[in-house]
Amino acid sequence: MPYDRTVTVKGPFDQVQQNVRSALADQGFGVLTEIDVQATLKAKLDHDMEPYLILGACSPPLAHRALEVDRSIGLLLPCNIVVRADGDEVVVQAFDPDAMVNLTGLDAIAPVAEEATRRLDATLAAVEAAGRNRQDGSA
After folding, report:
1. CATH number of the domain that 36 lies in?
2. Does residue 137 fall inside a structural domain?
3. If 0-12 CB within 10 Å is exposed, 13-18 middle and 19+ buried, where does residue 103 land?
């Protein structure tokens, strides 16, 4: 069962991750947590790897709706967004909210998952468009 929604864009990692943050904000998400996996693995294990961020994004209204259905849904919140370098491209991945419905088996979560999916897909589309505009020289 796929559990991600993914786009790949060309561009500098720092610019793409800023585009992700901006697109999330435009869709009503705040970034509550940030894990710099690259820095953490370097500091703790002296392991070098490509830039890799995990952003914990949250839409309070959607989180509230989900928690009203199932208090244990907090195990699946916030929505994790991964921004990672892959050669000269940057992969942006969002946790697929439909997986919440499949994991919990709660049909009442479906409307929340559908709204979250719509917003995350809009976020990914905006990131993809920003990458295309940068390539075309229009941004």
Report:
1. 3.30.310.70
2. no
3. middle
Domain that holds residue 112: 4-132
C-beta separation of 79 from 58 below 8 A: yes
Is residue 72 scored above 80 in pLDDT?
Answer: yes
Backbone angles phi, psi at 36, to 5 degrees: -90, 95
Q: Which strands sit side by side in the sheet containing 30-36, from one edge to the other?
A: 4-10, 89-95, 79-86, 52-58, 30-36
Tokens 């990914």 belong to 124
Domain count, the chain: 1
Residue 74 corresponds to which tokens in the numbers above? 């907090």
Cβ–Cβ < 8 Å for 25, 110: no
Which residues does residue 57 pair with via DSSP β-bridges, in sequence order?
Answer: 31, 79
In a domain, 47, yes or no: yes
SS3 annotation, 10-28: ECCHHHHHHHHHHHHHHCC
User: What are the phi and psi torsion angles at 2 (to 5°)?
Assistant: -65, 145
Q: Is the pLDDT of residue 123 over 60?
A: yes
Interval 12-40: pLDDT, tens: 999 999 999 999 999 999 999 999 999 99
